[in-house]
Design a protein that fits this description.
Elements: E1 23-27, H1 33-45, E2 50-51, H2 53-56, H3 61-70, E3 72-79, H4 81-85, H5 87-98, E4 103-107, H6 116-122, E5 127-129, H7 136-166, H8 182-185, H9 228-231
Parallel strand pairs: 1-2, 1-3, 3-4, 4-5
Length: about 260
């Protein structure tokens, strides 16, 4: 077997999900049908459900191909020079990639190296070299082991889908609130109004009136000016007569003292 690089089948199906009763889809060119039929018979003998256009194709060619790819859980791409030059094979490969299907590359022609669109499809993927007749039994055994691993991986991924869906973010209720009836929205009558309890007001505190502190006020009244009669000098007749006082008695001392 020729290996470009290690690695298994690519991608997890995201389109129509496979189940246990879906099939392996074989994409090949009819010019390689002798070797493809041998591989097909070996997989059927091992219990695999394999879809091949020799016995399943009917009606519209493209519609049948599309349905077969969609219902598969893995696609076998049987690459050769004839395969690369076939427009129908290119459509099958492109649709396989678009559907995010797992696919495994099988080499049908010795000394063939894919390029262009088929080279891009292979990339660094591992391929199984059935071009040498002496490699058939070992290649078929390795291919069956790879198919079992892919089927387990695909079905395991399907079992995890419901668990992922259980983790839903809390949703808000979209139920519309019921509207109140007319009896719930009318104003209550006086008879229906609750009577508030009668409470006596608390006793008022009597505090002596605060004595007013009168601040001294300054009079703003202007003093009256004296009249002319109040300002003239008094005459002699108007002058008050001073009281007549007698002189104190003179002391008489005896002569000769």
């Amino acid at each position: 077997m020729g290996n470009k690089a290690s690695g298994g089948a690519y991608g997890v199906p995201k389109g129509i999900q496979p189940s246990a009763n879906r099939h392996i889809f074989v994409s090949y060119c009819h010019k390689d049908k002798m070797l493809v039929n041998k591989i097909y018979k070996g997989l059927k003998d091992d219990g695999f459900d394999v879809w091949i256009d020799q016995e399943n194709m009917g009606g519209n060619l493209l519609e049948g191909m599309a349905k077969a790819v969609e219902d598969s859980w893995v696609v076998l791409i049987c690459m050769s020079e004839h395969y690369q030059s076939s427009p129908y094979c290119k459509i099958e490969t492109e649709y396989t990639v678009m559907q995010h299907k797992e696919y495994i590359m099988l080499k049908m022609q010795e000394n063939f190296s894919p390029n262009g669109w088929l080279g891009v499809t292979q990339g660094a993927k591992k391929f199984y070299n059935f071009s040498k007749s002496g490699n058939y039994d070992s290649m078929l055994k390795e291919l069956i082991t790879e198919l079992q691993a892919v089927r387990h991986r695909v079905l395991l991924d399907l079992k995890q889908v419901p668990k992922a869906q259980e983790k839903k973010s809390p949703t808000t209720s979209t139920t519309q609130p019921s509207l109140p009836t007319a009896s719930e929205t009318r104003e209550p009558t006086n008879a229906e109004m609750p009577t508030p309890p009668i409470t006596e007001p608390p006793p008022r505190e009597t505090t002596p009136p605060a004595q007013e502190k009168k601040s001294p006020t300054t009079s703003t009244t202007q003093p009256s000016l004296p009249t002319a009669s109040e300002t003239r000098e008094p005459t002699n007749a108007e002058m008050p007569t001073p009281p007549i006082t007698e002189p104190p008695p003179r002391e008489t001392t005896p002569p000769g003292t």
